[in-house]
Amino acid sequence: MTPIAHFAPAKINLSLHVLGKRADGYHALESLVVFAGVGDRITVQPADALCLSVTGPMRAGLAGLPDTDNLVLRAAHLLDGGAARGAHITLEKHLPVAAGIGGGSADCAATLRALTQLWGLGHDLGALAEMGAALGADVPVCLYAPHARVMSGIGEVIAPAPLLPAFWCVLVNPGVPVATGAVFQALAAGAIAHEGGTFWPGRFENAHTLARFLATCRNDLEAPARKLVPEVDQVLQAISTTGGCLLTRMSGSGATCFGLYASETDAHAAAHALECTDWWVMAAPVCR
For a 10 Å CB count at each end of the chain, is N or C smaller? Predict the structure, then answer.
């Protein structure tokens, strides 16, 4: 049987509003999520038992991780449901770990999609999203990749996004892993009042109108992340000075930040200017 491969693109939170802390201790969120044309790759093929191989330039970030903490294997076992199905899973790792761009969640989502196909299970995206929510708040939205979505609740409510124009991004990570839990703990959640969701236009005509609208939004996790990881300030400042940058912001809980650009030329020029650092830098189109 021919191996089945699924792309696991980087997730970008163009906005991330924390609407407050719920009675159960979770935070109510709202986020416009898009996916970049750069990411990891999951390949599955038949085998007698479940096993995982990790390759790629960022594989060292997962070295020594116990199987019980690996989202790819956890997703496989959850989907298998004790039926003892087998598969050889290969994770080709290109995205930095604990970086705020959903690398682990995207890998998990791609694994659920690929194994559903390999094992002929017939689950639709809704069923996989419900299952994936138990593995992480970003897994449901990553199952809908590469299409942009508005994510709300604690990550389980997925809605269509506005129609987006063609645009590019540059992703920059300073090489400092950030624990999502620590960022939320540093967030003054009690001081955040519950508010209504964003009124999203039906479409954005071009990258400039999108950037102007996003400038009225925010990432509420950026301030606490900047306190924990001062390098985020340096990255944001560096991106903002590149030519053609329409907007710069941190994604997720960090430390990856992004710049938005109207053209491929501007994005590649910005990435080239930033490559003089020892940061992870990647220019990519934004999927629509």
Answer: N
Alpha carbons 137 and 159: distance in angstroms, whole number: 15
Expressed as residue numbers, the domain containing 175 is 168-285
Whether 151 has a pLDDT exceeding 90, the answer reads yes
pLDDT for the residue numbered 133: 94
CB of 172 closer than 8 Å to CB of 223: no
Last residue of a domain, one of 134, 160, 186: 160
**Residue 177, pLDDT score:** 87
How confident is the model at residue 187, as a pLDDT?
A: 84
State the Cα–Cα distance between residues 153 and 30, nearest whole angstrom: 7
* Cα 251 to Cα 17, 109, 169, distances in angstroms: 12, 19, 12
Active site residue ranges = 11, 138
CATH assignment at residue 65: 3.30.230.10
pLDDT digits (tens, 9 = 90+) for 41-54: 999 999 999 999 99
